[in-house]
Amino acid sequence: MTRAGRGGGVHGRRRRPAGFSLLEVLLVMALIAAASAFAALTVTGGFESMRLRSSAKEIAANLRYARAQAISTGKPQRFAIDPRAHVWQGANGRKGEVPKKLGIVFTGAREVQPRDGVGAIMFFADGASTGGRVQLNSKGAAWNVDVAWLTGEVRLHRARADRQ
To answer: Is 81 helix (H, G, I), strand (E, B) or coil?
Structure first.
């Protein structure tokens, strides 16, 4: 009878431990993460699509904020957007910019426009509004932010780009 040496193998040969090394596992995880990120960007349309949706969400949130302020304070609140300058102004002095690469189309009541070329939506103490639509678009893709005049409800949804 021969005994195995300290290496655990027959005739003194060392066996390689079963499994993967930490380096191999990390390398595979990094490759999977990179492939997943690339696939996500390809499916969603990339950074431009993310910028478009993010900007539309920001405008929708600030329209909702203006409505909430009108209801809570009992005073009308205005949300104004300047498509040429790519800036907006909401309740309580909130301000923001829309990336220059995005197109802006505003549709709303002319009576509440602060000045020519600037669109505005007014919210009233009962939650109603003058209504309107802010559309952000880029390369044929678009997001509409619609405000219902009767209820003041703000809705965000995908759309086809309107002509400017």
So the answer is: strand
Inter-axis angle of helices 22-44 and 46-73, to 10 degrees? Answer: 70
Say how many CA atoms lie within 13 Å of 156 toward its Cβ. Answer: 15
3-state secondary structure of 45: coil
Looking at residue 131, the DSSP 8-state letter turns out to be -
For residue 15, what is the DSSP state?
P
Phi then psi for 95, rounded to 5 degrees?
Answer: -135, 160
Number of other CB atoms surrounding residue 50 within 10 Å: 13
Give alpha helix (H) positions in the chain.
22-44, 46-73
CA distance 107 to 130: 11
Pairwise CA distance, residues 127 & 121, whole Å: 12
Helix (H, G, I), strand (E, B) or coil at 86: coil
Alpha-carbon distance 111 to 121, whole Å?
A: 10
Q: Tens digits of per-residue pLDDT, 107-162? A: 999 999 888 999 999 999 999 999 999 999 998 899 999 999 999 999 999 998 77
